[in-house]
Hints:
Elements: E1 2-5, H1 10-21, E2 27-30, H2 41-46, E3 54-57, E4 60-63, H3 65-75, H4 85-110, H5 117-120, H6 124-150, H7 163-173, H8 186-196, H9 201-216
Parallel strand pairs: 1-2
Antiparallel strand pairs: 1-3, 3-4
Amino acid sequence: MKLIYDPTSTSSRIASFFLFDQNVEFEEQIISIADGEQYTAEFSGINANAQVPVLVDGDFTVAQSSAIIRYVALKYEMPVYPAELQARTRVDEAVSWFQTNFHVFHCVLLSYTHILPPLLALEAKTLAAMRAIGAQGSRKYLQVLNDRMIGDSEFVCGSEITLADYVGAANVTLGAFADVDLSAFPNVLRWLATLRERRGWNLAYGDFERAVAARQRPAAA
């Protein structure tokens, strides 16, 4: 089993954190999206969308981070994707929520406008409007995550980690590039602190956290 990914990619961290944390043996093939390596003929032959991550398992290839982690969880019958119908549906619901409602506002309209060159190149008023809409939606959905989804629980879907936590962590932490202040969301902070203590975190998030630190570090005089 091989994972082709970029450690700084939000979607890639969903898959890599899951695989490292669940102690799944896999081969790593790291590519740099900043250097455009996803557009090579070799990679486009694997994924015509030119996006990471991609999982190759023998003759079977699957892209899209949520599909990758579901595939592996089902292959190994992992409790992170519960077998019981309603529990599994609750996990699917949370995964979908993170990748639709939350992702649009917190990631696309807010965080990515501080990262991606095509968005940074927008006219100043347009960029400011996008960020304002994104920030408003980000606060709304962080409140839902804090109060209704995590609440008093340790994880998003209850007392045990599930696929939803791996998806959610990658999306929420992207807000660091937009200086999102999570102090008003103590349950979210507690949840992230719990995830940071897990064995897969440093392996999956090391490069990302170094990139965040480098951005926040004052330039030398």
